[in-house]
Amino acid sequence: MRALFSRDGFRRGARDGVPLAVSIFAYGVGFGLVAAQAGFGVAKAVATSAAIYSGSAQLAAVNLLQTGEATLWALFAAILVINARYLLFGATLQPWLWSAGPLRAYGSLLLLGDANWLMTMRRIQDGEEDRAYLAGTGAPITLGWLGGTALGAGAVSVLPRPEALGFDLMLACFAAGMVTAMVKARADLLPVGVGALAALGLFQLFGPAPAIIGAGLAGAAVAALMHGRTA
Amino acid sequence: MTDNFAVLLAVMAAAAFLCRVAGFTLMRFVPVSPRVEAALRATPLAVMAGITALAVQAGGLAEALALGSVVALTLVLRSDVAAALLGVVAVAVLRWAGV
A131, A166, B40, B54 — which has fewest CB within 10 A? Predict the structure, then answer.
């Protein structure tokens, strides 16, 4: 039997995605400005935002293209490395999302981002059964990302810098709030501590992208090791 | 290097798509034992803690105060969304005030 995938769940997700979408809109404007400086028109910038749908990977790609020496392989590899955390995100969603059926599952994954992965994992822990929730969170975020990109690339820079509004801290604020809400037992503090320490250590050695992946893997490993033992 | 934007776009989209679906697809062949389930459940906790820790390290006093207040407000208000939004307001105000 297929899992629930309803308009109600989609709407719930869309509502929860709105605050995230506001800050992602501001970053879309930022990417649009960068793309415009690299000689992208509005159409090209929006097409890039739709095709890659990941701010950090897009900025790296535009930088690489601007050097004029990037090969297609270099471009491919750069995006693969920066977005490697999505391998982890997809794996953690799999048991829940797959029961919605392949078309709905893979369709929802197209809208997967950092912010709505966090939000969806949080709701799954709270017992969210409706698999349309993930696609729902993606809807306002997609609108914000593409709309922001178009505005920025059209050089309509009416917004203050995202930092002035505190938007650069939006993801971290949601992460801090959600991790607090998700700690239900003392044993949950172990992956929290391990994740924080792993991220700080790996950041010094390898930079931000490996730090996040390493934090997730370290937390998963320690939880698997401790499973069945009473803490 | 090709000048054809459609080819560039297709290559970039393929890499981004691969990352989104590969972990998901591989996980279909992993039997979800209680141990694996515990690992999957712990992953977002560790990632969220990692994101928060990196933001505290990269930021100054304003960022640390805002994120600390998000943790406290989540416990008091029982709403992580409200707490997170108040945290964003807090850091904007603190920065504006020159903290």
Answer: B54
Taking CA–CA distances from A93, the nearest residue in chain B reads B24
Q: What is the ipTM of this complex?
A: 0.88
- Residues in Cβ contact with B64 at an 8 Å cutoff, skipping those fewer than 6 apart: B56
CA distance A177 to A124: 16
pTM above 0.95, yes or no: no
Where do the structural domains in chain B lie, given as residue ranges?
Answer: 1-30, 40-99
Q: Is the pLDDT of residue A156 over 60?
A: yes
Contacts of B21 in chain A (CB under 8 A): 90, 106, 109
Is A165:B92 a contact under the CB 8 Å cutoff? Answer: yes
What is the C-alpha to C-alpha distance for residues B86 and B84, in angstroms, rounded to an integer? Answer: 5
The answer to whether A91 and A220 are in contact (CB under 8 A) is: no
For residue range B36-75, list pLDDT tens digits in order: 989 988 999 999 999 999 999 999 999 999 999 999 999 9
